[in-house]
């Protein structure tokens, strides 16, 4: 269930137990919007003043790699995927 307020979308989720830990699922529309996939890391921040949690997608890049360089590399790999695979098989 979601409610939109002042440009924010609020969701109500049920807390589940997985082993000895608690978990909260992420709504599909948010996962798609944030381009989140199974195995991605998130950062969980506890806000003492608001007594609440903030969950952020964590973008992990190797040290010294700029996001725009990684994006350009991914575009090139996507564009030339077939040619690169053919080279690998030679």
What's the gist of this structure?
With 90 residues, the protein is α+β, with helices and mostly antiparallel strands. It has helices at 28-33, 67-79, 81-88, and strands spanning 2-5, 8-11, 16-18, 21-23, 42-47, 52-57. It starts with a strand and ends with a helix.
Task: Supply database-style keywords.
90 residues; two-stranded antiparallel ribbon; two-stranded antiparallel sheet; alpha+beta
Level of helix content? 25-40%
Count of β-strands = 6
User: Gyration radius, to the nearest Å?
Assistant: 19 Å
- Taken in chain order, the helices and strands follow as EEEEHEEHH
Rounded mean pLDDT is: 86
Strand percentage lies at 25-35%
Secondary-structure class: alpha+beta
Distance between the termini: 53 Å
Report the biggest beta sheet as strand number plus sense, adding barrel if it closes.
2 strands, antiparallel
Q: How would the global form be characterised?
A: elongated
Sequence stretches where pLDDT stays below 50 over 5 or more residues: none
Spatial strand sequence of the major β-sheet? 1-2
Number of helical stretches of at least 4 residues: 3
Structural summary, described in words:
Helix content is 30%, strand content 29%. It is built from three helices and six strands; from the N terminus they run E-E-E-E-H-E-E-H-H. The strands form three sheets. It has a two-stranded antiparallel ribbon with strand order 1-2. A two-stranded antiparallel ribbon has the order 3-4. It is elongated, with a radius of gyration of 19 Å. The relative contact order is 0.08. The mean pLDDT is 86.
């Amino acid at each position: 269930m979601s409610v939109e307020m002042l440009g924010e979308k609020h969701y109500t989720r049920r807390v589940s137990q997985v082993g000895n830990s608690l978990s909260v699922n992420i709504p599909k529309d948010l996962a798609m919007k944030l381009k989140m996939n199974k195995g991605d890391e998130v950062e969980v921040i506890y806000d003492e003043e608001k007594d609440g949690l903030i969950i952020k997608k964590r973008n992990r890049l190797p040290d010294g790699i700029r996001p725009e360089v990684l994006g350009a590399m991914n575009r090139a790999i996507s564009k030339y995927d077939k040619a690169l695979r053919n080279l690998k098989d030679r």
